[in-house]
Each structure stands twice: as C-alpha cells, then as structure tokens.
Amino acid sequence: MPEGDTVFRAARRLHTALAGKVLTRSDFRVPAFATLDLVGRTVDEVVPRGKHLLHRIGDLTVHSHLKMEGRWDVYAPGERWRRPAHQARVVLDAADVSTVGFTLGVLEVVPRDQESEVVGHLGPDLLGPDWDSDRAIGNLTADPARPIGLALLDQRVLAGLGNVYRNELCFLRGMLPTRPVGQVSDPGRAVALAHRLITMNRDRSNRVTTGVDRPGRRFWVYGRAGKPCLRCGTPVRRGELGDSELTLRDTYWCPRCQT
C-alpha cells in the first residue's frame, strides 16, 4: 500500500533514472494531456511531496499520485513491462531508460510555478527536507474533538502517513484510534514517533514497525485481526473509521494495550 516511504523510494528511483536527461518519448494516455509532447525537454528532478510525485521538467511539473494501486516502473529500453499496457497512464523515456506510470490515481501537468495549486494544501512532509514538527503538532491539535486516527490520516495535518502507520502509531502510543486528540497526553511524542518510524522505513523494501523483519511479525496490529497481540496476547480487533462512508478505512487495535 503506497504511503510516504513508498513514494519516497519511487521518487528516488525515477530521479536516478531521469534527472538531467532529455526526454525521447512522451506518451500521456489520459484525455486531458493526450496531445502534450515533452520530447526534447530535460528532466530537472523528480521529488516526493507526501504521497505525491513531482517530475519537474523545465517550466512544467508532471504531478502524479499513486492512490491505492498506482506505481511507477523503470525499465531498460525494450524491456517487457511487468503490467499490461492498458494500465499505463504515461510513458516518459530517455535514450537509455523507460519509465511508465501505471494505474495512477492522479495524473496532470501544471506550470511549475503553480505547483502549490496541487500540493500546497499538504501539511509538513514527514520525509521532506523542510520537515517542521512544530507546525505538524499545531495542525494535529487544532481540532481537539477529532479522533486521533482520523487526524493522523489527514494529509493537511502532516503528509505521508497512510493506514498502516496510522494503526501502528496508535498501538505504539497506547491510543485507541477513536480517542479524541484533546485527550492525547503528549501529541508531540506521537508526531516524533511518526517521523522516526517512516524515516526508518524509507530505505527498506519491507515496512517494519516491530523491529522484526519476518512474515507475520512486521506489524504490531495492522492486518492482524483475530490474532494474538504481539505484546500481551489479547486477540487484535478490527473496525472501520472515517469522516464518511467514502473515507472508511480499516482500523486494528489491541483492546488491552490501547485505551
């Protein structure tokens, strides 16, 4: 599931593959940009912003978001794609490399000086060079009645966390996801832990929050409904939490370790 660490690694792969190179192919397979041709332009950089990817190409920015199923692949010229062609939304190639964005939840091209219109709403980026913990804490505590599990997923509060980290953070801080933010004893520690966890995982192929990189042992509660809590043995419970039916996401918690 793409979260901030996954997007960070994707941006690094794409930057390594494309930065400083002239595009030899530009194929946008979405109606709004089907006629756009970036051939001959140089890719300046590819950077992550929370869960968003930004290809900066001259005075333009290709903005994409993986959502739940998207991915960017990097191939050698002529190499067979690992996903079917009908899932490709954009192809950006240089002389020695081919990059393909598959099933992207968002794909658009905007003037580079207007990037703020597509990512300006985001809170501090947990993996960004300008990470601002004080601002993140202020955003988190701005609505004391809001459940902590909803606030942590809100990209306007802090950018980069997804459902895995939301559940694991709540467990590690001993909080039910439904606990109001105003009842969290030290929100700053939750923010610090979020930053530490995602930073620790940004270079790993397997996301781990327990310190044990083995199947079935990587997470404390996420995906472990009905299984014994790795700390106390109590069966882990599963529910749903969201601002509306459209935003409901699975929650996992230990009824003994979290209050």
Automatic annotation (TrEMBL):
Record EC number: 4.2.99.18
- What Pfam families does this protein's entry cite? Fapy_DNA_glyco, H2TH
- Keywords of this protein's UniProt record, alphabetized? DNA damage, DNA repair, DNA-binding, Glycosidase, Hydrolase, Lyase, Metal-binding, Multifunctional enzyme, Zinc, Zinc-finger
Q: Which Gene3D superfamilies match?
A: 1.10.8.50, MutM-like, N-terminal
Keyword Metal-binding tagged: yes
Which top class of enzyme applies to this chain? Answer: lyase
Q: Which InterPro entries match?
A: FPG_cat, FPG_N, H2TH_FPG, Nei2_N, Ribosomal_uS13-like_H2TH, Znf_DNA_glyclase/AP_lyase
Name the chain's protein. Answer: DNA-(apurinic or apyrimidinic site) lyase
**Organism source for this protein?**
Curtobacterium oceanosedimentum
